[in-house]
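Incident log, structure service

09:12 report received: a user says their structure output differs between two submissions of the same chain.
09:20 pulled the input from the user's history:
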Amino acid sequence: MKQLNKRYGLLTAICMVVGIVIGSGVFFKTEDVLMLTGGNALQGIIAWLIGGAVMVTIASTFSVMATKYSKVNGVIDYAEATCGKTYAYYVGWFISLIYYPAMTSVLAWVSARYTMVAIFGVSSSSPQALYSAECITIAAFYLVLVYFINTIAPKIAGKIQVSTTIIKLVPLAFIAIVGTAIGLVNGTLTTNFTHVAEAVTPKNGGLFAAICCTAFAYEGWIIATSINAEIKDSKKNLPRALFIGSIIVVATYVLYYVGILGLTDSSVLITQGTSEAFKFFGSAGTVIINFLIIISCLGTLNGLMLGCCRGPFSLSVRGQGLKPQVFSQIDEQTNMPHNSSIFGLLLCAFWFIYFLGSQFFGWWGVFAFDSSELPIITIYPLYIPILISFMIREKDLHPFKRFVLPILSLCGVGIMVAASIFRHGLENVFYLIVFAVIMFIGFLVQLYNKKKGVPQQDQPQEDNPNELNAE
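09:34 re-ran on a clean worker, output below:
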């Protein structure tokens, strides 16, 4: 079977982690964190730190796995190596049909939202910027655009990931440095951290709810493992990328949060959004920052679409999922799984329609859940069997890597699950029903494949690293 080429180095892998994680979440979730903590800026920064600690811990554990298991798609490989092919299939089914496309569709909408703010000058909280025909059209255009970039020119997609990662760090670093300095000089920063802003805490608010809110901003690093088979010397470079990238993300988020609180009163951020703080730099400065945010969002969208394109492929090469013989095909010219990519785009379209209907149009009734958070929270419990089995199986590892990191990761999983309960309450139940239905469809697909005698295939281990680096 034809395999994907080794085309990405360490820098691209790091930029994949940073570029996918840092995008829109830090910009539009900051005011949500403040709102959920009742205007308590200090409690908000604790939420960002806890969410970041969970990400770094789990990413570090998975980086250890990356040194031992290297096949086609990181997290599915880890699930297969630790828990077997059946469990890996259901993890891959969830990631391919829910996790990747749900996140990607939300990012397309967020990118369009900031485009409406930057180009048309509307408020980020106005209906025109949220669900107007213009906003929906722009979001659909972005989805198709990044799809074509990833499928027709994957090497260009990798270069875009590197360049947009550097570009997106510019406004974050600028606001972090300038905002902190100004806030210390005029006393705004001190006031925000020593006085709780006048804000009504939602019924489902509090520290745990705020931690759940940060999940969207921190999530996405695991998607970098989807290019495991395309990273040169992945057993060394992927672990480095996961750890270095995670540290960069946490530091960036915390410093940006402090900087934004130095520009304006936290009560203004809660009621009018972070775009109100940008007005400190004047109209021209606001426009420039908003355009940089658009680039930031599109960089993240590019990375997410990369995962969507490879989702069905990662199952089909194992002889699993829908039509393995169709979705495992790789184009001779682009070395991309085009059938898998098209299906990934269609899934994004489905979840995009679902997101709009649940958040703005009331189409789904009780089954209208937050697709920007709940699918993300779901992946954490899926890590539990992987982490436990890893501790049992890997007897040759140092105790810190074998026990300490996985146990800390399990604690992180518990924090995220508790945070979801505090944040979403009964909404979790209706989401789980939808989740169960989709997973049951996966069971029926696998049952059909077995009846048809579709052979499950073992995945090849990574080739000689020296040969790969010589390419």
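09:41 both user submissions now match this output. Likely a transient worker issue. Closing.
09:42 reviewer note: Residues 71 and 461 are 5 Å apart (CA to CA). The two ends are 20 Å apart (CA to CA).
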